[in-house]
Amino acid sequence: MAETALQLDSRDNVLVALQPLAAGTGVRFGAASTSVTEDIPAKHKMALEDLAPGDVIRMYGMVVGEVTQPIPRGGLVSTRNVRHRAEAYSATRQPVSFTLPDAAPWTERTFMGYRRADGQVGTRNYWLVLPLVFCENRNVERMKEALEEELGYGSEGNSYRQHVRKLLQQKKAANSATASAKETSAARVFPNVDGIRFLTHQGGCGGTRQDAQALCGLLAGYIHHPNVAGATVLSLGCQNAEIRMLMDELRARDPQMTKPVLVFDQQKSGRDSTLMGSALDATFAALEEANSATRSAAPLSALTVGLKCGGSDGFSGISANPALGYLSDLLVQLGSKTLLSEFPELHGVEQELINRCVTDEVAQRFYDLMHAYSARAKAVHSGFDMNPSPGNIQDGLITDAIKSAGAARKGGVSPVRDVIDFPQYATTPGLNLLCTPGNDVECVTAQSGAGANLVLFTTGLGTPTGNPVAPVVKISTNSQLADRMADIIDFDAGGIITGEKTIAECASELLEFCIGVANGERLTKAEQLGQYDFIPWKRGVSL
Amino acid sequence: MAETALQLDSRDNVLVALQPLAAGTGVRFGAASTSVTEDIPAKHKMALEDLAPGDVIRMYGMVVGEVTQPIPRGGLVSTRNVRHRAEAYSATRQPVSFTLPDAAPWTERTFMGYRRADGQVGTRNYWLVLPLVFCENRNVERMKEALEEELGYGSEGNSYRQHVRKLLQQKKAANSATASAKETSAARVFPNVDGIRFLTHQGGCGGTRQDAQALCGLLAGYIHHPNVAGATVLSLGCQNAEIRMLMDELRARDPQMTKPVLVFDQQKSGRDSTLMGSALDATFAALEEANSATRSAAPLSALTVGLKCGGSDGFSGISANPALGYLSDLLVQLGSKTLLSEFPELHGVEQELINRCVTDEVAQRFYDLMHAYSARAKAVHSGFDMNPSPGNIQDGLITDAIKSAGAARKGGVSPVRDVIDFPQYATTPGLNLLCTPGNDVECVTAQSGAGANLVLFTTGLGTPTGNPVAPVVKISTNSQLADRMADIIDFDAGGIITGEKTIAECASELLEFCIGVANGERLTKAEQLGQYDFIPWKRGVSL
Ligand SMILES: [Ca+2]
Ligand SMILES: [Ca+2]
Ligand SMILES: [Ca+2]
Ligand SMILES: [Ca+2]
Ligand SMILES: [Ca+2]
Question: Where is each SAF domain found (chains A, B) (predicted)?
Fold first, then answer.
């Protein structure tokens, strides 16, 4: 008989329900069993002993909460009787031991990628169009409108115009009003350009100088990204994020300035139509050049992989996140870079990560970033403990430390080679910690700006997130979700919950899947839906 | 002979150059004259006396800077020799005297507007489609793609597809590649619906609870806005900004809940196509109903007017902003509401505004909001003095206090009837202070969310800002700009600089122009360009 609940670590005083547990029934976990005294929804936690106010809740062997109301053995752990609590930590590293999975079967594997002049390898070949300030968003959108449909990057496969047309026909039958429109689509004019990606954002002026600088750093990261052939940049003229600021940030990432960057300034151009005409002409010519790129075999070490969870549930930390951790442990042995981010969701596991840092200096950097971030949240009367969303809580992630303990498993057990801050670019092979919010889109935006040419995103509740330049593979933590939201989920890790698959099996299948995505043979669901989310993290204030 | 420089107040120790002043020439101001010892670019300031480090710079009779390097009489005031300084202020009101312009010619005037069930009157009739969280942006954009072209709200007049098509034809002539596409456009199916406006934003989750609440307040303000007939709302499901939070905020603004609000939840819908199909069907039916609205005559008291400056130059505080102030002084006498915002740009004129507040309580509220905002900027190592942008500085607004002294003139001389904080809705007739950043789009977004059914936006450098629900009239501070960027400027106040027009004449013409816009007879340049900027002010942190 399969287990119906899981004790994640022998030190834990709660079980995770793998399915709904009814009051009065018994529950098996490992070789043991106990009785249920209160209905426990799937994904939620049941007390393994009588708990009194002040007692700590342990999961994954870690402190994840504090009891506020008595909970009997067999009773439900909830926001009514438990509050967030996390273990204190110091910057001093303690020795750790760990075992890495065998990466030998993967050492000779390659993917078909675009080799860039700077040595990086892309999994896609895009042209970027981006504004230095929000005032230019509308012009970027008009370039999109003009270029996408005419050059064959349109939305036919993904349009609801036909649906509206049917509504119109019904209306027409009912009364005399009439309307008609015909959809047409062009063949792809530049077949080796996988797309033109149009970024819009809300920064570049009306804020702090630091945020303007960080925005330029992020945009430079996108231009430097291996999936990008070059960029068209629109400037208004008077904004904080000046053209030279972007160019300095780009030079810091690519001293040879190997990529074409076409810059246009509206206040210098005068008429809007002058600006648009010049930008379109130059972009068109640049696309012809970008179209000369072709794919060739590259080692897996050329991958930079963002690790992300969002819309998490009580199974995230048991199925999909550990599978990602296993995959990360494989990849870092092959020389790839992996990025663990979402710092508010590392609150509670700081000491474990500090212990895994390869030097005191790296550990100190993580310690300092966590402290500064936490202080800033408290300064606005919030805190890391406010991270779990209503959906998280309803699905069993009732404290930030519970969420964190599961979230951190995406990083596996490998040493932490480097710690970098937004909007830095990742340059160190191995596991990197990249300081970002847990906010899904801000995090994926930052990972991509750090050079991620692949993002692996686990979800228990289902969320459609994608990115303009990195393919985002969405992995469900449970099979119900993979089935119910098949149009946004790429890969199902639910077999780990049902016992059909081990974490190692699931991770191997996922890596195979990822190579197909990296090759361009497989488009992610987000790419199919045209879901290109982009939100730069703004840390300062508006002025 | 016309003046070539202006002494704005008899207490001022600097002149504003109305045109470039060459070293060695003389300059006339009022009845006086003096000699120029250094080239002074137009819009910049010249010292009227020898100034030593520590001396204060006075403009509009107010302290706007402190001298850091000696400046000889006739020399240029610049960031090299002057830094920001502003006068201290207290919450205690001092008596003020003021003279209002004669509003009698306008008392019987009306505009043709849409009367809503709640008594408000719209200048436009829109249907709104908006997401509760950024995860739904893509679905909102797909609804836009499906509805706009099919229902006749497309971009033909404003599209660059034809431009790209020409480039393709040239390419075709050069080699054998081919592509073709035909643009089609539908007649407007619902002629009394002026548009469907699709909002996207970057909030609703991954941040503080306070920001989720503020976002719901802002979105409720947009739904409650007199230009809006009703709304379609997309929810993911697990986000912080829950459906009930939006509904509570809407009820607080409109206790009778008079407008149709259609809500769809993706996680409850399962397939993306189920969500999209239901949302489109219901929206289509609601548009039929919204189409029954018609315009009728309404008094000018039904106007709520946002006062805004952006991309400001050294003439903003001399021409367009005083014209707006005059107009505001007319409107408040007619019972309209006017909104002065951009609090970082009121730094330096706090005492003047406090003195004008109608009660101690209103004054204290303004004092408290300015203090809290300033403290928050300092906490992230910034400050109100960082507000001027590179473009502002280059065009003569070298300190925040100089910028503020000119910016505050948009509010005229009328009493301050109320002080409200973002995202509150304005309900008090007369001049209101609404706490927002100077950030152009965040400010206009907030003014519209406070009920502005018209926004007047002055600019010296040229900026394309528009809003999804409020028409934004853009007023140039100088005629060169009106000519050079004719496609984004609606009204030229430059005649005040050349001496062709008085402030009163300019304000009267502008009010006449605004009535045409309110009637819907006249579309603003932003409406013609489809410039619908929307950025909710986020005060907290990402988590
Ligand atoms: Ca997460
Ligand atoms: Ca999340
Ligand atoms: Ca957008
Ligand atoms: Ca301003
Ligand atoms: Ca500005």
Answer: 12-83
Is pLDDT of B171 > 80?
A: no
User: Which of B151, B389, B487 has the CB atom closest to A271's CB atom?
Assistant: B487
Same domain, yes or no: A135 and A265: yes
Asked if the structure places residue B93 within a domain, the reply is no
Coil/strand/helix, residue B82 = strand
Domain count, chain A: 3
Residue B292 contacts A, CB cutoff 8 Å:
no
pLDDT of residue A527: 95
Cβ of B244 under 8 Å from any chain A Cβ? no
Average pLDDT over residues A23-51: 94
Contact list, A236 vs chain B (CB under 8 Å): 311, 463-464
Q: Which of residues 430-469 of B touch A (CB under 8 A)?
A: 437-442, 461-466
Contact status of A387 with chain B (Cβ, < 8 Å): yes
Q: For residues A265 and A237, is the Cβ–Cβ distance under 8 A?
A: yes
Same domain for A19 and A144, yes or no, is no
Give SS3 for B296: strand
Crossing angle of the two packed helices B137-150 and B272-290, in degrees rounded to 10: 50
Asked if the model's pLDDT at residue A2 lies above 90, the reply is no
**Residue-number span of the structural domain to which A503 is assigned:** 306-529
Interatomic CA distance for residues B355 and B367, integer angstroms: 11
Q: Give yes or no: residues A269 and A348 share one domain.
A: no
Condensed to tens digits (0 to 9), the pLDDT of residues B207-259 reads 999 999 999 999 999 999 999 999 999 999 999 999 999 999 999 999 999 99
A240 and A336 co-located in one domain: no
- Quote the distance between the C-alpha of residue A517 and its chain's center: 16
How far is the C-alpha of B517 from the C-alpha of B473, rounded, in Å?
8
Residues A159-180 pLDDT 10s: 777 888 888 788 777 655 444 4
Confidence label for B380 from pLDDT (cuts 50, 70 and 90): confident
Residues A278 and A310 in one domain: no
A213 and A343 assigned to the same domain: no
